[in-house]
Structure to design on (1173 residues):
């Protein structure tokens, strides 16, 4: 029994909001993929910290030895030693950042790649509900946040933690009592940090979300320029942008302000701690519990102790925005994939092309069915025309055959095999589509046609273009087949785009061909010319054709008439005319028009 | 226009923030003195009162620093965010004013990145400069001054080493700025591939080309990573180099110090003090590489942002456009119009002349690529003619303000472009204050009202981006309704009924006839053309014939051919 999966419910977002720590751990798991390099970075941090301490120590010792006392023996060696220490120090610093940048950028690279790959696994419905620009923002604005943080903060955090632990050990060794006094600020610190981060975490997330929304809005207004301009809606669009801009500014303002508090708070707590140590220490010294020398050294160390804390708190700003960014990336990566192929789904290498619907019902939204209880058989090599008023469900059937969506009930059989036991990829590899809005990529015309079959030779590309009647207009373009198509399709008409889409499908040489209003923008003379090529193309493959011009579908082996999501008539052109039903009236109304024209 | 003109309005908060930062810095510099006092006079002397007294002073001062720090936070965030806000708004408004020729010089994905990512970069730079970046140079200068006061001769070492180091920093910064510009360009590319994939996802899935696209993305991603790694590694070289040279300076101070001490011109204490200051300067210098990175990124982003701001808009109101000019009747004339797309060599329209009387219905027919859509786009000045004149009501359309001109035209493009939002909101694009009745009327004329009423939320139904949740025919009808609600003087329908079945189309055309406007329809269908008062036949960018159905059927071979392609043989006697 196959488990039923619905693509449309799988698009929902991850509901559990993961905490700060969880996200940081998850980012860490990416870094941990580069274990050996990471260990090297750590070693270099240890080395540079040690060498950084060794230098001043040597200087102190040298001053005692060679300045306070007037000895000169070996002074030059001290300086040489110092130079060596500093040289190594610089080298270790350089190496740690050199490696860390590599790891950080590789991590970010992996995140981008995962995001991209995951986009391709998501159901088509996911993209219908989201703005493209909003999704793009996750690559640019969110991942870039992570990138900025990983480059600098990781090393900083390492070395701060190292210094912190080292100093703490020395402090405890010097005086556990005074250490305890110093530690009084730690709970205060945590409370303060908690208060601030509970706000900033939310604010940063909000900021990134709004930035994403803004990105989406910008993208949409750029794609829709033609409408905006011809409706002179620039002021309205700018006003709406202003609202989004204002919201972004608000969340950004509070996020930055609050994170700005952190280092200031730390600084103040440090001073508090120092004064406490001095006062308590002084009291102890008076009572002879500790020596004055200990207190003097101890205060020095407690200052040492607070410096890394300060550094750490300065990193918080970037860390929080990185977490907010990473969260939004993980949100996508964690979104359920397009109903995954069933476990036992296998590739079906050679489809003959029999397509059968058995009681298929489906709806995009919960509630009324878009199509209900569809049953029909398309034999291998048959051409099937889908006819019906707009919104009847013709494109939905195409969506189901190509498995952009899975039926709510009923099954679809391909070559008598339940389509769910076939991998989507192997199925689509053997289908070709000419879709309602013909999408072309930026790139040359040649590459766009070759998209149908990536290993096609230039001759094959040209042949396909000739068959689609596109060759003549292509050769008239400035650079012929190498003409680059620009983003706004300037210089190429909608009809020409359709011709290129048809050429692309011809080149694909599929077992199942889907033509969804493939010639709607093409003039009828050109259409007649490519009709022959299309007929040739249809031969030997199962095809599904949606068209409004009935004379283009008259020759179909089977015509399925759909109204309100149901099959109301089925048969060949002649059979349907005899039935004198919906098709008959549709056809005769066109015919009447024709006769009207002829009189 | 430069970035600095955007900083200018915030000079008061910026100065205030810098002053507050100086207060913090001063407190920070005084603190060691106070600590020394607490230790020397208090703890060592065993005087607890002194400890408490000076401890109190120190706490007071640190509270002062805290207060100014917090205030600085508010002010710096205000300045940074407002600066970013202004910049984004200016950029967005500028992009809205772009002509399509302007758009063709910036990829969309790049424009988006510039408005969001680059501005964020700049905004953060300003914020960080106001908070910490200025500290480093101040600490360096302070350190040098103090060292000079202690022992001028030994401090000369700093003068020898610091200028070349500064030159080195400047050199790295210029180099890095260039590198980061490439990084942003690569980011654009990644963004571009991503955008194309999102827009074309359906096709990519349909052709199972996920892997192919993956490779394409990988190339862009590889490039971005490599360039970023390179740029960052170059900037990160600064710390080790700076530290090395500063530390070598310390060694030099020790060497000369030893000589000076031996000759008695310097005391041991002075040497120790100068070494201490050198250490402080070194510490401050280590902040520089970070500052360099931030600044060079900011420089790269600033250039990208100003590129957009300074882009010259080539299609706008001209000197002769007058406010009072508007479309009154809807008469359209083309006189010897030629048109070539910007940055293209081959002309789309050549020497096109015709005129359309007010209130007429005109059909435009022609082969795919004949220039029909291009001709349409010249009327609301989406593009400007390369040659010739387009006149409406007898006056050159350039004599009208763009806004006035476009107000009078209802343009329904071939690809029905709808926006995220409700159906109501999409209709309101045509008329902002449209009442519900007006909407229903326009929708009913466009034959979409009944469909809308069947939707779960009727006119409040939300549409996805580009109206993805509607069928092709529904989108077309909705965009026709959007144009009708304007009550335009001129209605331009660019093959906007291609996805409609014949019955719906006939009803729609009939409903259109009650609108008092000049209607120009691009169509493939003879049945539609037949109803028009006049038919324009376009071929290869030129007008080859015009007239009504009957006369064209007699005289035009092209028209006869189109007729035949749809209805078979022309009946004798027609």
């Amino acid at each position: 029994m196959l488990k039923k999966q619905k693509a449309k419910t799988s698009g929902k977002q991850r509901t559990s909001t993961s905490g700060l720590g969880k996200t940081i751990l998850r980012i860490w798991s990416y870094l941990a993929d580069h274990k050996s390099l990471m260990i090297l970075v750590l070693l270099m941090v240890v080395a540079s910290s040690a060498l950084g301490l060794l230098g001043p120590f040597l200087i102190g010792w040298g001053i005692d030895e060679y300045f306070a006392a007037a000895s000169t023996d070996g002074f030059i060696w001290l300086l040489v030693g110092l130079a060596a220490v500093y040289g190594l120090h610089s080298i270790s610093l350089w190496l740690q950042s050199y490696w860390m940048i590599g790891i950080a950028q590789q991590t970010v690279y992996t995140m981008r790649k995962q995001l991209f790959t995951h986009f391709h696994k998501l159901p088509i419905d996911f993209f219908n509900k989201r703005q493209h620009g909003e999704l793009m923002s996750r690559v640019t604005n969110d991942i870039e946040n992570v990138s900025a943080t990983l480059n600098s903060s990781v090393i900083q955090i390492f070395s701060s933690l190292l210094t912190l632990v080292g100093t703490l050990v020395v402090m405890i060794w010097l005086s556990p009592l005074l250490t305890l006094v110093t530690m009084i600020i730690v709970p205060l610190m945590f409370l303060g940090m908690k208060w601030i981060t509970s706000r900033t975490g939310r604010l940063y997330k909000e900021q990134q979300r709004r930035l994403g929304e803004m990105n989406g809005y910008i993208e949409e207004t750029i794609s829709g320029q033609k409408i905006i301009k011809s409706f002179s809606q620039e002021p309205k669009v700018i006003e709406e942008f202003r609202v989004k801009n204002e919201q972004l500014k608000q969340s950004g303002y509070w996020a930055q302000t609050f994170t700005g508090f952190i280092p200031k708070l730390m600084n103040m707590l440090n001073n508090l701690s120092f004064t406490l140590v001095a006062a308590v220490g002084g009291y102890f010294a008076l009572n002879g519990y500790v020596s004055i020398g200990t207190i003097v050294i101890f205060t020095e160390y407690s200052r040492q102790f607070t410096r890394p804390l300060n550094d750490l708190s300065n990193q918080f700003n970037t860390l929080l925005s990185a977490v907010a960014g990473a969260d939004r990336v993980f949100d996508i990566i964690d979104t359920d994939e397009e109903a995954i192929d069933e476990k036992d789904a296998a590739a079906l290498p050679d489809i003959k092309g029999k397509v059968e619907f058995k009681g298929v019902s489906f709806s995009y939204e919960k509630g009324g069915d878009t199509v209900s209880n569809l049953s029909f058989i398309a034999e291998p090599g048959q051409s099937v025309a889908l006819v019906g008023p707009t919104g009847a469900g013709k494109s939905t059937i195409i969506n189901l055959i190509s498995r952009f969506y899975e039926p709510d009930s009923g099954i679809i059989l391909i070559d008598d095999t339940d389509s769910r036991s076939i991998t989507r990829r192997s199925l689509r590899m053997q289908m070709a589509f000419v879709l309602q809005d013909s999408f072309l990529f930026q790139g040359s015309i040649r590459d766009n046609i070759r998209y149908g079959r990536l290993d096609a030779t230039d001759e094959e590309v040209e042949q396909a273009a000739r068959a689609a009647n596109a060759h003549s207009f292509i050769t008239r373009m400035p650079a012929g087949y190498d003409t680059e198509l620009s983003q706004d399709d300037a210089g190429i008409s909608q009809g020409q785009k359709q011709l290129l889409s048809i050429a692309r499908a011809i080149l694909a040489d599929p077992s199942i061909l889907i033509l969804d209003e493939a010639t709607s923008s093409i003039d009828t003379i050109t259409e007649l010319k490519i009709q022959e090529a299309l007929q040739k193309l249809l031969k030997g493959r199962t095809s599904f054709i949606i068209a409004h011009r009935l004379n283009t579908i008259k020759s179909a082996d089977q015509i399925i008439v759909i109204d309100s999501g149901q099959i109301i008539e089925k048969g060949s052109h002649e059979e349907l005319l005899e039935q004198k039903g919906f098709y008959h009236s549709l056809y005769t109304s066109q015919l009447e028009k024709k006769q009207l024209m002829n009189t | 226009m430069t970035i600095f003109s955007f900083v200018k309005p915030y000079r008061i908060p910026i100065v205030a923030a810098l002053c507050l930062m100086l207060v913090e810095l001063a407190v920070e510099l005084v603190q060691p003195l106070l600590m020394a006092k607490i230790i020397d006079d208090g703890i060592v002397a065993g005087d607890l009162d002194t400890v408490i007294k000076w401890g109190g002073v120190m706490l007071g001062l640190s509270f002062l620093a805290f207060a100014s720090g917090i205030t600085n936070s508010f002010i710096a965030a205000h300045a940074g965010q407002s600066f970013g806000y202004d910049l984004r708004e200016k950029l967005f408004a500028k992009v809205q004013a772009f002509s399509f020729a302007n758009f063709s010089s910036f990829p969309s994905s790049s424009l988006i990145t510039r408005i969001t990512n680059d501005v964020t970069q700049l905004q953060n730079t300003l914020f960080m400069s106001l908070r910490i970046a200025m500290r480093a140079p101040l600490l360096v200068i302070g350190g040098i001054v103090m060292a000079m006061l202690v022992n001028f001769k030994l401090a000369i070492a700093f003068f020898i080493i610091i200028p070349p180091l500064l030159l080195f920093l400047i050199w790295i910064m210029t180099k890095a700025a260039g590198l980061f510009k490439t990084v942003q360009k690569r980011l654009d590319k990644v963004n571009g591939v991503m955008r194309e994939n999102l827009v074309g996802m359906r096709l990519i899935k349909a052709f199972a080309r996920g892997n192919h696209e993956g490779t394409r993305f990988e190339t862009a991603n590889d490039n971005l990573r490599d360039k970023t790694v390179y740029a960052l590694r170059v900037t990160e070289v600064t710390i080790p180099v700076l530290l090395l040279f500063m530390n070598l300076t310390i060694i030099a101070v020790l060497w000369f110090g030893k000589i000076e001490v031996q000759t008695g011109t310097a005391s041991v204490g002075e040497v120790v003090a100068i070494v201490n200051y050198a250490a402080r300067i070194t510490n401050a210098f280590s902040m520089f590489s970070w500052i360099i990175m931030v600044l060079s990124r900011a420089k790269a982003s600033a250039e990208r942002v100003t590129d957009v701001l300074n882009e010259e808009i080539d299609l706008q109101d001209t000197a002769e456009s007058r406010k009072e000019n508007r479309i009154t009747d809807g008469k359209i004339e083309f006189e010897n119009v030629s048109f070539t797309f910007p940055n293209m060599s081959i002309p789309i329209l050549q020497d096109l002349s015709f005129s359309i009387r007010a209130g007429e219905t005109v059909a435009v027919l022609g082969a795919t690529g004949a220039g029909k859509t291009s001709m349409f786009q010249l009327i609301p000045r989406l593009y400007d003619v390369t040659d010739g004149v387009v006149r409406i009501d007898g006056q050159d359309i350039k004599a009208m303000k763009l806004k006035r001109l476009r107000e009078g035209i209802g343009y329904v493009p071939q690809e029905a472009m709808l926006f995220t939002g409700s159906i109501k909101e999409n209709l309101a694009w045509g008329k902002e204050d449209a009442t519900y009745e007006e909407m229903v009327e326009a929708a009913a004329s466009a034959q979409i009202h009944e469909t809308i009423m069947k939707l779960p939320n009727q006119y409040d139904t939300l549409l996805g981006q580009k109206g993805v949740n509607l069928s092709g025919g529904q989108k077309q009808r909705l965009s026709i309704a959007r144009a009708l609600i304007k009550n335009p003087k001129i209605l331009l329908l660019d093959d906007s009924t291609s996805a409609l079945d014949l019955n719906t189309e006939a009803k729609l055309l009939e409903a259109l006839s009650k609108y008092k406007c000049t209607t120009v329809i691009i169509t493939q269908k003879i049945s539609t053309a037949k109803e028009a008062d006049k038919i324009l036949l376009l071929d290869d960018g030129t007008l080859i014939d015009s007239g009504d159905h009957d006369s064209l059927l007699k005289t035009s071979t092209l028209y006869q051919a189109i007729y035949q392609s749809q209805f078979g043989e022309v009946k004798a006697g027609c």
Notes: Chain B touches chain A through 182 residues (CB under 8 Å).
